[in-house]
Specification:
mainly beta, 1 helix, 12-stranded mixed β-sheet, 8% helix
């Protein structure tokens, strides 16, 4: 039975709506800048792949600087890269402290790709107490809370304002969300650069 023109038009609208609802895929990149050519960064990723990422005209650059565990206080907004423990707690691999103007960024608990089965929790510190295995931190986010153990020696970093001049060969970087464009190129509007020899640990 032939389909009516109206049916065909409705089908076209449905497909167009579905396509417009899809967000462009994003890629997380950890690696070292090997070369800079204007807005184009040549990056050697942590798994050895050669990648090219174009930065936007208004790219935000943030330094990733080492800080102390004592800087994590009740009310701090932090990101915890961790491994889940059998008792339900999260054992931190790294902690990053967000500046106040980034409070609420990517809030919540999700799988992460630093290691197999690792997690990321971006949340507000409700309580921090010294425990036998390290610092015990309770963090709360809009959908729940997590208990985190931060063992001694865990890298703790913070984000500080940076500058495009830091995007130089040899810099260790992490890009949380490079956007894959229709032509296959990668574009980033934020690059996080390790300061003073720091490799972004998250």
């Amino acid at each position: 039975m032939p389909k009516s023109p109206l049916f065909a038009a409705l089908l076209l609208v449905a497909f167009a709506s579905a396509a417009s609802a899809q967000q462009p895929p994003v890629v997380r990149i950890r690696g070292t800048i090997e070369a800079v050519d204007g807005a184009m960064l040549s990056i050697k990723s942590r798994d050895g792949a050669d990648m090219k990422v174009r930065t936007t005209d208004n790219v935000a650059v943030f330094g990733v600087a080492k800080t102390d565990l004592s800087e994590i206080k009740p009310g701090s907004y932090i990101g915890v890269t961790a491994m889940p423990e059998p008792d339900g707690t999260q054992k931190a691999i790294a902690v990053h402290i967000f500046p106040e103007n980034q409070r609420g960024a990517a809030e919540g608990f999700r799988p992460w790709d630093l290691r197999a089965n690792s997690t990321m929790t971006n949340a507000t510190v409700a309580e921090t107490v010294q425990g036998t295995d390290g610092q015990n931190i309770t963090v709360k986010y809009k959908d729940g809370e997590k208990k985190v153990v931060v063992p001694p020696g865990t890298p703790v970093v913070t984000f500080v304002s940076g500058d495009k001049s830091e995007l130089q060969p040899g810099a260790k970087i992490i890009i949380f969300g490079a956007v894959k464009k229709d032509d296959g190129t990668l574009e980033a509007n934020r690059v996080n650069v390790g300061r003073d020899g720091v490799t972004p640990p998250m």
